[in-house]
Amino acid sequence: MGTRQTILSGMRPTGKLHLGHLVGALENWVKLQGEYDNYHLIADYHALTTDPDSSRIWSNSIDMLLDWLAAGVDPARSPVFRQSQIKEHTELHLILSMLITAARLERNPAVKEQVRDLNIENVSYGHLGYPVLQAADILLYKGDLVPVGEDQVPHVEIAREIARRFNNQYGAVFPEPEPKLTHFPRLPGLDGLEKKMSKSAGNTILLSDSPEEILKKMKTAVTDPLKVRRNDPGRPEVCLVYRYHQKFNPSGSAEIEAGCRSGALGCVECKATIAGVIASHLSPFRERRAHFESRPGEVTEILADGEARARARARTTMAEVRRAMNMG
């Protein structure tokens, strides 16, 4: 066990997850859980950085956890836990916040992007510093690797800088975490290739959507603006629906491409095909989700067990931190 590398990854609890989460994170988590020691964090404190209303955090956390379990995250191998239940996250966050300047945090492109996307007028102190809390999340479990999409790499860079600074100042406690880029990091939303799938944009297909809902949503998907009528030749490279074919229907995508270019394949038919493929791809997922949904007690137990295991690991790290700092 000791030689395996550790991965920490997590998500803010925003409720039910969508296809973007599946291809950007969950598939990767499931694939990695045999090779690494994985820790999966429900980042409920992070959720407060953009919305201080905490009334939905618990229900959103459970909805998200159901999707994790349904996607194949195995809690026996990979502890799942809420950040707020392991107080060492806040303790380490406070210590690490002494090791980075406000100016450095203000230069972080990921926060700038979020402020722009969410139209935030005044950035809170906690929001500006959330990469420091993220660094604490990773370093607490001595994460070697952090699976991220390319937009999150700046955060991992901040965690590396902070780990380096701590080790130089107090002695070697933390490994410098490396970003582990996912191969298919960004799934575009239904409203266009350059739009990221996200709940706030209302352009998502949820993992728990029924086949009927998937078809209904897919009908609204943006296609090649020059392909107006059925027999018009299309350009698959500018079409969002073709991108979904490449991901979820790889064996059929060459045929789809040819039909689109020649004009033989109409958009309506093409959308119906991919909606069916995605629905059947998600069918085992929906079954597993229903299984866990009908057993709320089991889900709470899974969470309590994950939290106990994460807490034990976090306590060990914090004991080393205090020893290194002579703050015993």
Key structural traits:
globular, Tyrosyl-Transfer RNA Synthetase, 328 residues, three-stranded parallel sheet, Rossmann fold, 5 strands, mainly alpha, 54% helix, 2 domains
**Class based on secondary structure composition and strand pairing:** mainly alpha
Give the SSE string: EHEHHEHHHHHEHEHHHHHH
Q: Tell me the distance between the termini.
A: 29 Å
Output the CATH homologous superfamily of the largest domain: HUPs
Major β-sheet strand ordering: 1-2-3
- Basic shape: globular
Give your account of this protein's structure:
The chain is mainly alpha-helical and 328 residues long. It has 2 domains: 6-187 and 296-325, 3-Layer(aba) Sandwich (Rossmann fold); 210-281, Tyrosyl-Transfer RNA Synthetase, CATH 1.10.240. 54% of the residues lie in helices and 7% in strands. It contains 15 helices and 5 strands. The chain has helices at 19-32, 44-50, 57-71, 88-96, 102-106, 109-117, 125-128, 130-140, 153-170, 211-219, 240-248, 253-262, 267-281, 283-293, 296-325, and strands spanning 6-11, 37-42, 80-82, 145-148, 178-181. The strands form 2 sheets. It has a 3-stranded parallel sheet with strand order 1-2-3. A two-stranded parallel sheet has the order 4-5. Helix 9 (153-170) links the parallel strand 4 (145-148) and strand 5. It is globular. 38% of the residues are buried. The model has no long low-confidence stretch (mean pLDDT 92).
